[in-house]
């Protein structure tokens, strides 16, 4: 079965069920100096871009050129919106996110273009409230088993 056939089946399933289906594709190994900037870098076929309604490319961008004074410890995730079939639902573009390990969230990073080759990255405020409950789970106190009742509940 070819990639196009599998994607056609997934597309048909999504339309029949009304579900939003996300297909994650790993890029092909880039040649030396090549950057992953488009869905056409997907390993296997251009069908991934051609069949998609929306296409996002996520790239680790920790080596992005930064202006002195830009936070160097900031881990950047470059989000490239490479395809939008319905213009009413958004548009193509690029943004950066940073991961905050203290609260397990990604936050938006404002990119200020200093020159064509140099950027200043400023993370925008993110709630410091951790949505993950790190407290230990409480054990529920169940009643002692009734010897006359052999039911497990």
3D structure, described in words:
By secondary structure, this protein is α+β, with helices and mostly antiparallel strands. Helix content is 13%, strand content 25%. It is built from two helices and five strands. It has helices spanning 3-17, 47-51, and strands spanning 54-60, 76-84, 93-100, 105-113, 119-123. Strands 1-2-3-4-5 form a five-stranded antiparallel beta sheet, with no helix packed on it. A hairpin with an 8-residue loop joins strand 2 (76-84) and strand 3.
Task: Give short descriptive properties of this protein.
153 residues, alpha+beta, five-stranded antiparallel β-sheet
- Using only C-alpha atoms, the radius of gyration works out to 23 Å
How many runs of DSSP E, i.e. beta strands? 5
**Percent of residues in helical segments?**
10-25%
What's the overall average pLDDT, rounded? 78
Proportion in β-strands: 15-25%
| Helical/strand content category | alpha+beta
**How far apart, in Å, are the first and last alpha carbons?**
49 Å
Biggest sheet strand line-up: 1-2-3-4-5
Largest sheet: 5 strands, antiparallel
Net shape: extended
The parts where pLDDT drops under 50 for at least 5 residues are none
Number of helices: 2
The H/E string reads HHEEEEE
């Amino acid at each position: 079965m070819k990639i196009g056939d599998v994607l056609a089946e997934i597309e048909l399933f999504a339309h029949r069920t009304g579900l939003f289906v996300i297909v994650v594709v790993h890029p092909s190994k880039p040649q030396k100096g090549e950057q992953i900037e488009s869905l056409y870098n997907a390993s296997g076929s251009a069908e991934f871009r051609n069949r998609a309604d929306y296409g996002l490319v996520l790239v680790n961008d920790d080596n992005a050129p930064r202006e002195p004074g830009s936070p160097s410890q900031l881990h950047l995730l470059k989000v490239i919106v490479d395809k939008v079939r319905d213009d009413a639902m958004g548009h193509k573009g690029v943004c950066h996110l940073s991961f905050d390990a203290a609260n397990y969230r990604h936050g938006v990073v404002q990119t200020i273009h200093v020159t064509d080759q140099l950027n200043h990255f400023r993370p925008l405020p993110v709630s410091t409230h951790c949505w993950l409950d790190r407290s230990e789970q409480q054990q529920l106190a169940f009643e002692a088993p009734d010897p006359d009742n052999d039911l497990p509940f």
